[in-house]
Design brief:
heterodimer; A: mainly alpha; 13 helices; B: 276 residues; mainly alpha; MetI-like fold; 2 domains; 15 helices; globular
């Protein structure tokens, strides 16, 4: 066998190491993104042999039609409930468990595991369990309501409350994740800062929180807010399992609409426009997240 | 002062315990229904726990439904995805750290750009491509789209960048090929990163519903989340017990793994925050 010149051998080694990953990224990430962008300006349907250019018509339909607007406003409402609730509760639970760790570390650890459980559990299976918890007659929630003399509710089929029910499940699933991130932030706060605050007269729980904890958690809080937002905008599993966007599109969201239009009705063009809108939102959030990760690294 | 402290502790513990019970509610209800006999499920009065343990629901879920098949499909898919992800990501990450080639900055730029793309965005063209080449409704359709993992490459690159270069240099002097260095030196060194990544990847794909819903219609290929929806939609409403037993069986592997390796799990899933 003839020995190849060293520089060629080196290039071949580089290609062997990097090539597969690079080709796979091109095939499954970059080409598809370009294709979605192109599709979004066409009337392409899965299975059709040709397509026509529509310009911005798909986007006009998304922002102009009642249904399109419904998916967008539903998603925004869902996100605007899940973010403050799960970040706020995550912070409160983290501070509570962090304090408890001083006098009952074992119990604090048990509770931490409990709060984190929904993050590890399979959301679709747990949604099926939620369906039984919220079942109109067999569910424990309505049974408790009736026992207390209240009115049973149709948590998943009442247009007025279905989105709030889904948001509540979203909060249930995210609190533990946010708690873990806040706990990491709390551990990193130096003890002497609290001592210094006490010397300066900030000895009470509230003043300790406002003078030390809250400012020191600033970067963590921003990071948690952005992560929660990126996850909340992706809401799909609970919608697909529990409501399929219904009743009467009262719980339709962006990703579910993209799934339904694209893969149930096979309207690839319109679904691509939904995809692009979703993509732009996530792009802004993820870029913000990158900036924050970078800043956090510089802090330490 | 002491009383104030104790009252404070009591109140905050009370709040945390009530919160934890709310978190546990669907788990408790799922287990309770899974172990309840039929007549205790279909009652209007509130009864949190079964009066006797009924194993029949689990027996039915395992022997009369496709739940074992769903679990096996899930295992095939998540392990397949993980193996290919590692095979592609580790050499690339190693080269990005250890090798000086012209396209290095460009490739790393690609990795960072790919991190910005949520999977949902690529679904339509990938579905179209898979339909063209006729591999929808195969295991490949469930595995291939996840093989390139920008997050994995990024994670391994960050980790390997902290390893002293002398280690790799010494291996080269010993005459090891670059491929051998990747798998015999770099990969074992990067085990902590690999563990975190494996936990993240397995959890994400075991739990995923979006892509299996799109790529497969064949119930024989259903992953656990897809499968339990098949089961739920087929049963007419009187199989609640077996359905909850199935939900328990599907949730159990990851939850048990989490309880046994809490620290690793929390780290692995929290590292996924980078990916967003």
């Amino acid at each position: 066998m003839r020995v190849l010149p060293r520089s060629i051998r080196e290039t071949l080694t580089d290609a062997w190491l990097v090539g597969p990953a690079a080709v796979a990224m091109l095939t499954f990430i970059f080409l598809p993104v370009a294709a979605v962008a192109v599709f979004s300006f066409t009337d392409y349907q899965f299975g059709a042999n040709s397509f026509a250019w529509l310009g911005l018509e798909n986007y006009e339909r998304l922002f102009g039609s009642t249904l399109g607007q419904r998916a967008i406003t539903n998603t925004l409402l869902y996100v605007s409930i899940v973010i403050p609730a799960s970040v706020g509760l995550g912070l409160v639970v983290a501070i509570g468990l962090h304090r408890m760790a001083e006098w009952a570390p074992g119990f604090s650890n048990v509770l931490r595991a409990v709060y984190f459980l929904p993050v590890a559990a399979t959301l679709v299976a747990m949604s099926v369990a939620w369906q039984m918890v919220l079942h109109p007659s067999l569910g424990v929630v309505n049974q408790a309501l009736v026992a207390l003399g209240g009115e049973p509710r149709s948590w998943l089929s009442d247009r007025g409350i279905v989105l709030y029910t889904l948001a509540m499940i979203g909060v249930w699933q995210t609190v533990g994740y946010n708690m873990v991130l806040f706990l990491a932030g709390l551990v990193a706060i130096p003890k002497d800062l609290y001592d210094a605050a006490e010397v300066d007269g900030a000895g009470g729980n509230w003043s300790r929180f406002w003078t030390v904890t809250w400012p020191m958690l600033g970067p963590t809080t921003l990071f948690v807010l952005v992560i929660t937002a990126t996850n909340a905008f992706r809401v799909f599993e609970t919608v697909a399992t529990l409501t399929q966007g219904g009743p009467a599109f009262a719980s339709d969201t962006l990703v579910y609409a993209l799934y339904r239009e694209g893969f149930v009705y096979f309207k690839a063009g319109y679904a691509s426009a939904i995809t692009m809108v979703f993509f732009v939102i996530l792009l802004v959030l993820t870029l913000a997240q990158f900036r924050l990760v970078e800043r956090r690294v510089h802090y330490r | 002062m002491i009383i104030k402290l104790l009252v404070g502790r009591f109140l905050s513990s009370l709040f945390l315990v009530i919160g934890a019970l709310a978190i546990l509610l669907p788990f408790i209800w799922m287990l309770s229904l899974a172990f309840k006999p039929q007549n205790e499920i279909f009652t209007d009065t509130i009864q949190l726990l079964p009066t006797r343990i009924e194993w029949g629901n689990f027996v039915k879920a395992i022997t009369e439904t496709d739940v074992p098949l769903y679990l096996m499909n899930g295992a095939i898919v998540v392990i397949g995805i993980l193996v290919f992800q590692l095979l592609f990501a580790v050499p690339c990450a190693y080269a990005l750290v250890q090798r000086n080639f012209k396209a290095r900055t460009f490739i790393f730029g690609m990795v960072l750009a790919a991190l910005l793309v949520p999977f949902h965005v690529t679904a339509i063209p990938i579905f179209l491509g898979f339909a063209q080449i006729g591999i929808l409704n195969t295991y490949w359709a469930l595995i291939l789209p996840f093989v390139p993992t920008a997050f994995g490459i990024f994670l391994f690159r960050q980790f390997l960048a902290q390893v002293p270069a002398d280690l790799f240099e010494a291996a080269r002097v010993d005459g090891l090929s670059e491929t051998a260095i990747v798998w015999r030196i770099a990969f074992p060194l990067a085990m902590p990163a690999a563990t975190a990544f494996a936990i993240f990847s397995i959890t994400a794909h075991w739990n995923d519903l979006f892509w299996p819903l799109i790529a497969t219609t064949d119930p024989n290929l259903a992953t656990p989340p897809r499968g339990i929806l098949f089961f739920r939609d087929e049963e007419s409403g009187d199989d609640v017990g077996p359905l909850m037993a199935a939900a328990t069986l599907i949730t159990a592997p990851l939850v048990i793994a989490f309880l046994f390796a809490q620290r690793k799990f929390t780290q692995g899933l929290a590292s996924g925050g980078l990916k967003g």
